[in-house]
Amino acid sequence: MSTIWTDAVVVARYDATPRIAVFDLARADGGELWEYEPGAHIDVAVGEAALVRQYSLCGPPGIRKQYRLAVLNEPASRGGSRAMHALAEGDTLRIATPRNRFGLTSARRHLLLAGGIGITPLLSMAQTLDATGGDYHLHYCARSRTEAAFLADLENHPQVTLHFDDQPPEQLLDLGRDLGEPAPDTGVYVCGPGGFMDYVLGRAAELGWPASALHKERFSASPTAAEPDGGGEGGFTVRLSSTGAEYLVPEDQSVLDVLLANGVDAPNSCGQGICGECIVRVREGDPDHRDDVLTDDERAEGLFTPCSSRSRTPILELEL
Questions:
Q1: Three-state DSSP class for 67?
Q2: What pTM value is reported for the model?
Q3: Measuring CA to CA, how many Å separate 210 from each of 67, 174, 207, 214?
C-alpha cells in the first residue's frame, strides 16, 4: 500500500513516566483510521520543521477511531521526540498509513522481550494475543518502576514478568532461564535500546536460537550495521532498470540521497536502514548491506535498502 497522509488531532495526552508521554490520536475529520496488525508503526510529521519520525502503535489494533503512541523524550535524538513532547491535547499533526515489518508470525508460542520504550510494539502484540488466546510470555525490562510505562496494565498480568535494574539480582532478566534453549514453533520478538537488543540477540544466538526464529525492530541503526561488509568503500554508479539512467554515488552520499537529488521518485522514510520503506530489488551488482531491517533470506533474494547500503561492484542496478 502506498503511503497516504492525513491530519490528526491529539485527543488525549498523559505522562506515563517522567520521560515517556502517551498520545491518543484521531483523524481531524472524524473518520476512521487505517487497520493495522500488532507491531506496526506510523510516520509522524510534527513541529514547525515538519520532522518525520517513526513511532510504534501500542494500542489495541482493532480500534480504528484512535491510534496510541508512547514517545520517550530523548535529549540526544534528532529533535522528533522533543517536538512530540511539546504537543498538548487539541494540537494537530500529520500521520501516515501504518507499516509493519515486525508482525507476529504463525508460531505456536511467542516470547516477547522489551527494553524500556521497546514495550510499545510488544504491548500491541500482547493485547492481540490476549484477545485471541495466543500462547505467549512478555518480559519487560526497565531501569526502575518509575521508568516503566503501562505498569497498571502489566504488573499483575499472568503472562508478564517485570525486570527492573534496581531489583535483587535473581529478578533481573536471565536469558539462560527466561529464554532458554531453542523451542520448536516458537518466535522471539525483541525491541528496545541498541545495547539491550545487541545483548538479547547475541545471547540468543549463543543459546542456539536460529536467526529465522528471532524477530527485531530497532529505533536506531546499530553501529555494526553501518560497518562495511567486506568492501563497498568509495564511490560507485547506480543504474535504474526502468530507464537505464545512471548516477554516480560519491563516498559521502547514500544511494537514496543521489536518487532524490536527481528527481527519482524513490520511497523513503527513516533514512537509517531500520524501517524498510525504501526497500528495492537489485538486478545487477553485489550490494554491501548496511541496514538493520532485512533478514539474511531477503538479502539473498536481492532486496536492498538505498538509504544505508552501498555496492561492492562499480555498477549497482536497481529495480526502479
A1: strand
A2: 0.88
A3: 34, 19, 9, 7
